[in-house]
């Protein structure tokens, strides 16, 4: 199994090959745990998230598509979604949750595993994002960070800002539209 690519292993996982899932676990469990641990800041919850990620790989009907990006990114997206769900659940239950800061996000991905090309690409995108942020208001930046990095739902944000849900959706849409427009310009320049 060690000679198989991540894509090939996922095809085997779809055919319920335990050894393929085991190989993916060996390759990525530490990365998934590290990401989850930093996101939720709770060791036991991070372990549960790791288990949930690999159970999801085993049971999901959705498939990894190599042409859309790297397997590692897809896996970390699943991890981020599960961590966000955990944070939301804790907040609903009234537990104090320490959310992570956006500047800590760059530490989530295992930099040792990134090739020089991937590192340069990530740093370039980070610089483009920081540059494009100057076109957003403080409120737009706060809205983006609460929604994408702190795990708030749109309904929770509407309650937090004491605004109608439609207004919050519209503001988020406008902020993303501005970011997209300026990211495209930055990427060309």
Name the descriptors.
globular; 189 residues; mainly alpha
In words, what does this structure look like?
By secondary structure, the chain is an all-alpha fold. Helices cover 70% and strands 0% of the residues. It has eight helices and no strands. It has helices spanning 6-14, 18-40, 43-59, 71-92, 116-133, 138-148, 154-161, 165-188.
The DSSP helix count reads 8
Structural class: mainly alpha
DSSP E strands, number:
0
Instruction: Report on the biggest sheet.
Output: none
| Strand percentage | under 5%
What is the averaged pLDDT score?
81
Low-confidence stretches: 101-106
Shape: globular
Helix and strand sequence: HHHHHHHH
Output the radius of gyration: 18 Å
What is the share of helical residues? 55-70%
Beginning-to-end CA distance, first to last residue: 43 Å
Write a concise synopsis of the structure shown.
The protein has about 190 residues and is mostly helical.
SSE layout:
Blueprint: H1 6-14, H2 18-40, H3 43-59, H4 71-92, H5 116-133, H6 138-148, H7 154-161, H8 165-188
Helix pairs in contact: 1-2, 2-3, 2-4, 3-4, 5-8, 6-8, 7-8
């Amino acid at each position: 199994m060690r000679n198989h690519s991540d894509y090939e292993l996922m095809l085997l996982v779809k055919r319920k090959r335990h050894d393929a899932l085991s190989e993916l676990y060996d390759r990525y469990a530490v990365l998934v745990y590290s990401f989850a641990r930093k996101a939720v800041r709770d060791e036991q919850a991070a372990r549960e998230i790791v288990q949930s990620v690999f159970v999801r790989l085993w049971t999901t009907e959705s498939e990894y598509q190599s042409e859309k990006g790297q397997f590692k990114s897809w896996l970390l997206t699943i991890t981020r979604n599960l961590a966000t769900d955990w944070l939301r659940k804790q907040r609903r239950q009234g537990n104090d949750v320490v959310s992570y800061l956006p500047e800590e996000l760059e530490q989530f991905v295992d930099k040792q595993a990134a090739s020089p090309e991937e590192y340069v690409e990530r740093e370039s995108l980070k610089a483009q994002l920081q540059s494009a942020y100057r076109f957003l208001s403080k409120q737009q930046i706060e809205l983006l960070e609460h929604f994408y990095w702190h795990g708030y739902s749109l309904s929770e944000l509407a309650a937090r800002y004491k605004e109608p849900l439609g207004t919050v959706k519209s503001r988020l849409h406008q902020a993303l539209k501005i970011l997209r427009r300026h990211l495209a310009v930055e990427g060309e320049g």
